[in-house]
Amino acid sequence: MKKIHYAVVALALMMGCSGNKKSETTDINADTIATTDTIVPDERGYIVEIGDIAPDFSAVVAGTGEQVRLSDYKDKRVVMLQFTASWCGVCRKEMPEIEKQIWQRHKDNEHFALLGIDRDEPDSTVLQFAQKTGVTYPLLLDEGGEIFCRYAHRLAGITRNVIVDTDGRIVMMTRLYDEEEFARMTQVIDSLLIEAGKQ
């Protein structure tokens, strides 16, 4: 991938997370970011790694105003974080599959939680987005993209999922919507929930 021109990157960094609505297919050249920011993302734009404690955050649930924290779910065996936005075409393709293959299968499982995290959009937009994609799982309002920036670089594309285990550690991260990777993610979730049922 060609390096992003320094001036363009610097401008985007000054704009902060809320100023970035990059294409969902955009990833970051780590060599370029190393010269403009203190955190070097991996090749998919993540600034967290497998095995890391998932960064805590608080956010409001769209449509209800309920305030939640990731740490509120520490008793869950699996917490799935789905980063999304209404302008993301890949998200619109993936979300109905998350609804059908993951949420509808596990929503009543006491060991499971799914939190969609919509990047820097107002409540009304997020609710319309949920209706259009047919999802019923909760979507959180990520004002300014601050939650996203705890997991991925501010210039990275939006479409990604993070699976967190009962110890609060990241066990899997996805990028874009690849059917094989999505299948592996569902298997990871299933395996962790089967283990929870045996305890």
Describe the 3D structure:
By secondary structure, this protein is of the alpha/beta class. The protein has a single domain, classed as Glutaredoxin. Helix content is 35%, strand content 19%. Strands 2-1-5-4-3-6-7 form a seven-stranded mixed beta sheet, covered by helices on one side. Helix 1 packs across helix 2. The N terminus is likely disordered.
Strand elements, count: 7
Q: Calculate the mean pLDDT score and round it.
A: 85
Q: Helix-strand pattern, N to C? A: HHEEEHEHEHEEH
CATH architecture descriptor: 3-Layer(aba) Sandwich
Q: N-to-C terminal Cα separation, in Å?
A: 47 Å
Could you tell me the CATH topology label.
Glutaredoxin
Instruction: Please identify which CATH superfamily we are dealing with.
Output: Glutaredoxin
Estimate the global geometry from the Cα principal axes: globular
What descriptors fit this protein?
6 helices; disordered N terminus; 199 residues; alpha/beta
SSE layout and pairing:
Blueprint lengths: L5 H10 L14 H7 L21 E4 L5 E3 L8 E7 L4 H18 L5 E8 L3 H11 L5 E4 L5 H4 L8 E6 L4 E6 L3 H20 L1
Parallel strand pairs: 3-4, 4-5
Antiparallel strand pairs: 1-2, 1-5, 3-6, 6-7
Quick structural gist:
The chain is of the alpha/beta class and 199 residues long.
